[in-house]
Amino acid sequence: MIILFGLAGSGKGTQGKALSEIFGWRWLSVGEAIRSTGEYKNIIDKGNLIPDEDVIRLMGRQIEKAEAEGFDVILDGYPRSEVQAAWMMDHMADKIDGAIILEVPKEELYDRLTLRGRDDDKERDSIDRRFEIFEQNICSILPLLEAKNIPIVRVDGVGPVEEVTSRLVEIAKQFNPNATEQRDDVNGEEIEKSYGE
To answer: Which of 54, 91, 109, 187 is deepest in the core (most CB within 10 A)?
Structure first.
């Protein structure tokens, strides 16, 4: 299991999908899972986070289902809080191969989010609120992973989609030596026209 972290617009969705295609893994996006319920739109549009217990229950089920079906998992943006990370460390730390933080300058992120054009990407205040929450939470999440000796790598998320994917593929192989490329012709633009969450 590999975790992808990054600010909104950093390309977690795009790159998570690419890695899932390349390695035959199951891509699980916390943002997509939450939005698909249709229950939290008001919270999301304000840039706030969903209650931890709801996210833990939702993602726990998805992870269990993927593992029961024999898939390795790539987590897109989960855990999002210290509470969620602590739950993961208590229940599945031994399954986590590593974590990747996609780093992209904020000005580029604003441009990407404008192009993406989701409802929760339209207000600058909402975007800034999401950035602030992420930056606060990642400072409490990473020490929990480090305490379990889970490797964490920061990756430059700037550049053509395929170049960023190549960087991540090499790191994924370092995290999981058993990872086998099932496809080498994945085109990031075919997966997602603009950068994902």
So the answer is: 109
